[in-house]
Amino acid sequence: RSKENGKDRYTFFQADMKANSETEAKIELELDEAVKTDRFVLAFQPQVNLRSQTITGVEALVRWDHAERGLLSPAEFLPVVEKSRLAPVLGEIVIDKALAAAKYWLESGFDFGRISVNISPSHLASGQVVDHFKSAMAKHDIGPERITAEVLESVFLNDNGSGHLAALKELYELGIHIELDDFGTGYASLSHVVDLPINGLKIDRSFTKQMLEDPKKEAVVNQLIHLARSLNMGIVCEGVENEAQYDRLRMMGNFSIQGYLIAKPMFFDAMTNWMRESADDLYFVI
Ligand code: C2E
Ligand code: MG
Ligand code: MG
Ligand code: MG
Q: Is residue 101 exposed (0-12), middle (13-18) or buried (19+ Cβ within 10 Å)?
């Protein structure tokens, strides 16, 4: 009897696996088409210093403008991209579009600080990421002092010959800033932060969200801010949604914040308008 159950489960599992890999294969074909027909769009979200309230950076966030299903968020397609040969292909597209936008803003006279690009583990491991940055920098005439690469802390944990670390060191030596994204959610230890080529930490929005109710989360945020300062690293606190969070963070130090309180991610034209408007008005938060 148990053997039968086992067999049923086995059959079910196999069927499920097949369905998933068929779906993934279909998505992969569609992704190929989307690359060829230029269906990837960037949204941009500003980062501002919480004291001066001036812009210190802009994060580029990719969306897939799907022909039938409309705009898809990264969570809906990045997992498939990561497992496919398309990771460096999409990565290159994002870098190119992000630097093109940066060029336009600089030429329009907006000092937005740095353009921040999320770099996936597969792209980092592909051996192509440094060339992708170098060619986009040359094409758009953007210097490394204008660029941040955001990487997940997991890329530091299991290098295992993947080449993640070598690629990051090359980017760092070029002068591109490296920031650890979603910091606090993975397992990076302090020794990683101290020894590796990192210019800044992005405190994950789960901490920002829980900080007001949970004194332990607040203590972690406080310690990260002090740690960053003593290591001469920058901080960006993610997911700031309300003034209560903003006020609490403001008491903790002088750093940058990002979140719906400041602005939701916007497409290029809206981001450009936002820069134009906020250039005349320093006090757009309170
Ligand atoms: P992330 O890099 O941590 O980006 C921040 C995410 O939080 C974005 O979601 C943003 O829209 C959202 N967010 C910003 N402020 C708030 C807030 O105040 N409240 C809440 N609830 N959410 C906020 P999005 O655009 O859906 O991106 C999700 C993740 O997908 C990103 O997390 C990043 O890991 C990945 N991603 C996005 N674009 C790219 C890309 O071009 N390349 C790669 N490799 N990954 C990307
Ligand atoms: Mg990010
Ligand atoms: Mg993040
Ligand atoms: Mg995140």
A: buried
- The residue whose CA has the least distance to atom 9 of ligand 1 is 61
- Output 164 or 274, whichever has higher pLDDT: 274
Strands (E), the chain: 40-49, 55-66, 70-72, 114-118, 147-152, 177-183, 200-203, 234-237, 256-257
Checking if the pLDDT of 157 tops 70, the result is yes
Torsion of CA 231, 235, 248, 44, to 10 degrees: 180
- Are 208 and 183 in contact by the 8 Å Cβ rule? The answer is no
Torsion over CA: 259, 264, 265, 269 (sign)? negative
Number of neighbours of residue 84 by Cβ within 10 angstroms: 17
Q: Are strands 55-66 and 200-203 parallel, antiparallel or unpaired?
A: unpaired
Task: Say yes or no to pLDDT of 96 above 70.
Answer: yes
Q: Write down the pLDDT at residue 164.
A: 86
Q: Which residue bears the tokens 């290159």?
A: 92
124 CB under 6 A from ligand 1? no
Q: Over the stretch 119-150, which tens digit does the pLDDT of each residue have? A: 999 999 999 999 999 999 999 999 999 999 99
Report whether residue 121 contacts ligand 1, using a CB cutoff of 6 Å: no
223's tokens: 């310690």
Query: C-alpha distances in angstroms, 16 versus 77, 223, 249?
Result: 19, 45, 46
| Contact indicator for 272, 43 with CB cutoff of 8 Å | no
Using most ligand atoms within 8 A of CB, pick from 118, 133, 205 the residue to mutate for ligand 1: 118
ipTM of the complex: 0.98
